[in-house]
Design a protein that fits this description.
Strand content: under 5%
Protein name: Plastidial lipoyltransferase 2-like
GO molecular function, one term: transferase activity
Number of helices: 1
Structural class: mainly alpha
Order of helices and strands: H
Helix content: over 70%
Number of strands: 0
Keywords: Transferase
């Protein structure tokens, strides 16, 4: 019983860690996209 509980907790922690990594990657990509968009806008204004 205790082993099952610990294994489920482990899988929950693993899923949370994967979610955190995905969110970090999304934030990183969105930030680079925002920078590219700003650069494009600056080029158009010039």
């Amino acid at each position: 019983m205790i082993g099952n509980l610990s294994s489920t907790f482990g899988s929950i922690n693993l899923k949370r860690r994967i979610l955190d990594i995905k969110i970090q990657e999304l934030n990183r990509t969105s930030r680079t996209h925002r920078v590219h968009r700003l650069m494009l806008q600056n080029n158009q204004s010039i």
